[in-house]
Write a structure and sequence with these properties.
Elements (H helix, E strand, L loop, with lengths): L8 E4 L9 H16 L3 E6 L11 H11 L9 E2 L4 H13 L3 E4 L3 H5 L21 E4 L8 E3 L3 E3 L10 E3 L7 H11 L4 E5 L6 H11 L5 E5 L2 E2 L20 H11 L10 H11 L10 E2 L2
Parallel strand pairs: 1-2, 2-3, 9-10, 11-12
Antiparallel strand pairs: 4-5, 5-8, 6-7
The structure holds glutamic acid (GLU).
Glutamic acid binds next to loops.
């Protein structure tokens, strides 16, 4: 976990809520090619901090799928489920800086208020304890950032939100774990699906609070089904199988706007794709699955 300035370090950070589907293959391939085409490292991090949403065995399945697709990661896989001490440490630092507050809004109350705290919990001084969500006081405005695919991104102030870092049920929130790990792993570029574009200002804010040098961001096109819904585990997207790895890799390359090399050897295909990778060819999407 050493931060270097020259080496590009990218990552793929799946949640083991099910096996990889075509949309996650696009994210895995895009992040891999971006890092590797710059002579960088590509890390895999298992975001297994939400047991109620996880599927037994999915983490191992994902790693087997990546291997079958020739996407070999550098170093060892980091499992977020083993990082509780570090998350507690960061929460404690933020608490001591007076940046956290407790929020006891119910799911219903949040739903009725577009997911935001509606009871002015910021002012209520609830103790940070079990049974309340721990929220981070947002900065004054959503931070603008530059995205390699989307260009200059600036979200309206209405998007400003006090993000939950520890959930009411006691679980660490994705927004906390993702930034702590990206900072600790020295990640220099975050290449992932465009569904996380609007999470980026909040994550950038946390990057700043933790004193990290923010990464380069690139948000890849989402894959949608014919009915316009995002291809996702929640929508029962079919798992991809290694049996058709070559065909799916070629399809993923086409979705990413890259030339599709001929041939039927996976390592050769990836090497070729790496040599010709250009992020400025990646469309914003969404891309409809044929
Ligand atoms: N774990 C997240 C997911 O599977 C991705 C996190 C990220 O790439 O920042 O959707």
């Amino acid at each position: 976990m050493l931060q270097t300035n020259s080496l590009v370090i990218g990552r793929f950070a799946p949640s083991p809520s099910g096996p990889l589907h075509f949309g996650s293959l696009v994210a895995a391939l895009g992040s891999y090619l971006s890092a590797k085409s710059q002579g960088g490292q590509w890390l895999v991090r298992m975001e297994d901090i939400d047991p109620p949403r996880e599927q037994a065995g999915a983490a191992d399945t994902i790693l087997r799928q990546l291997t079958a697709f020739g996407l070999h990661w550098d170093g060892t896989v980091l499992y977020q489920s083993r990082r509780s001490d570090r998350y507690d440490e960061v929460l404690e630092q933020l608490r001591q800086r007076g940046l956290l507050y407790g929020c006891d809004c119910s799911r219903r109350e949040l739903q009725d208020n577009q997911g935001r705290c509606s009871k002015h919990c910021r002012q209520r001084g609830l103790p940070l304890a079990d049974g309340v969500a721990w929220r981070l006081q947002a900065g004054r405005e959503p931070l603008p950032f530059e995205d390699a695919i989307w260009g200059a991104c600036r979200f309206p102030d209405t998007e400003l939100d006090d993000v939950v870092l520890k959930r009411r049920d006691g679980l660490y929130a994705y927004q906390l774990a993702v930034v702590v790990d990206d900072v600790d792993q020295g990640i220099t570029e975050v290449v992932r699906g465009a569904d996380l574009l609007d999470a980026t200002p909040r994550q950038l804010y946390l990057w700043q609070l933790l004193g990290g040098t923010p990464p380069r961001w690139a948000h890849l096109p989402l894959i949608v089904q014919a009915d316009g819904r995002k291809l996702s585990k929640q929508n029962y997207a079919p798992a991809i199988t290694g049996a058709d790895a070559l065909g799916l890799l070629k399809q993923a390359l086409a979705v990413l706007g890259q030339p599709v090399p001929p041939g039927d050897d996976i390592p050769a295909l990836l090497a070729e794709a790496c040599a010709h990778w250009r992020i400025d060819r990646v469309p914003r999407g969404p891309v409809m699955l044929a």
